[in-house]
Amino acid sequence: MTLADMTADASGFILQEAPRRRQRKPMLAAMLIIGSAMFVAGCETTNNTESMIRVERAQGSEENIASLSSVISANPSDPEAYNVRGSAYGRAGEFRRAIADFDQAIQLNPRFFQAYANRALVQRNVGNQEAALADYNASLQINPNYDVAYIGRGNLYRQAGQLDAAFNDFNKAIQLDTTDPRAYHNRGLIHQARNQHAQAIEDFSTAISLSPSSPEPYNGRGISYAAQGDDENAFSDFNTAINLNNKLAESWANQALIYERRGDKAKAQKSYSHALQLDPKYEPARAGLARVKAMS
To answer: Any transmembrane segments, and where (predicted)?
Structure first.
């Protein structure tokens, strides 16, 4: 289940600092209009539709980066300009340039807590986990109520197996009334790992309500339903996940598991095989297919 990584790492860039009292420069205001969809996608609740994916790709395009560079040329001392272009570089996979822009934004405004969180996100992508943790900590030191940084740091902790620390960070974001589905989804994953499936289902359901077109929380909730023996609801969730995105091996393998439990070997084998076509290295599908073939 990868809503955490998908939303945070692909779309989690925060474009601008909290509104300032000063008037924005006209060109910077125009730039922020260009980037407004990125802000909605990364900071609030959604980033899951086909149109949003197309928008985000466009925001990492050479044309958009060139436009943002023109804005920086006109506003070389404005940290927000570098933060926005850094976000565009991040979306384009230009991580070295993204970090350089976030470095410049922070140099110009050492209290730019969003830029620290953005740089942390890129550091995660390039595998610099210690640097990412330091940046999330810096962001939270400046703004202890910044939910995005708690969620990002929680993901670091969860991926490192530090579930208690991760759980505390997701809880903190939720206590801050975040509308970011990642907090609920990732807390649900921890509940699930602890076999607390009723609590997991509740969290996945909240994530679904906040981001109804994401397949990942449906997969997560379906797994907890299945763990409770509720195969009907599990099957419904796995099918919904497939309808939302039929390119995820996990969804097909989950569907196959229900077919397998029902004794429908032919359909189970077909779904496991399709999962392996999508991801030949997906071990649950490989193991499931071997089980079904052994039963035949």
So the answer is: none
